[in-house]
Structures are given as structure tokens and as C-alpha cells.
Design brief:
By secondary structure, this protein is mainly α. The protein contains two helices and no strands. It has a domain at 20-56.
């Protein structure tokens, strides 16, 4: 099965966070989306390697 070619999407944030609480909620959503994308696109060994690199940084 061939991998599909990823599409690069552009987005613009319309309602930027105005308060600290809104910024924290936005950051959580961004982190969750990034984690999901990495989990779906990387092999388990690559995920482990990435985690180790982030721990060292």
C-alpha cells in the first residue's frame, strides 16, 4: 500500500486568545493536535527517538 502524499494546509487564527486561560486552552489543543499528527505519521521507533531527543534538549 502506497503512502498518500501529505497536503500542506494554511490556516489563520481568527479568534486569538485574549486571556491567560484562553491561551492555556489553545496551547493544550495545539499540543494535542501535534501529538496526534506525530503518532499517526511516525513509526514507534521514531517516536521513541523523538521523545529521547526532546528529553535531552
Amino acid at each position: 500500500m502506497a503512502k498518500r502524499k501529505p497536503r500542506l494546509l494554511k490556516c489563520r487564527i481568527l479568534n486569538v486568545p485574549q486571556t491567560v486561560e484562553e491561551q492555556e486552552e489553545y496551547d493544550k489543543k495545539v499540543c494535542k493536535a501535534l501529538a496526534t499528527a506525530l503518532y499517526r505519521s511516525l513509526e514507534p521507533e521514531q517516536i521513541d527517538s523523538l521523545i529521547n531527543q526532546l528529553k535531552e534538549a
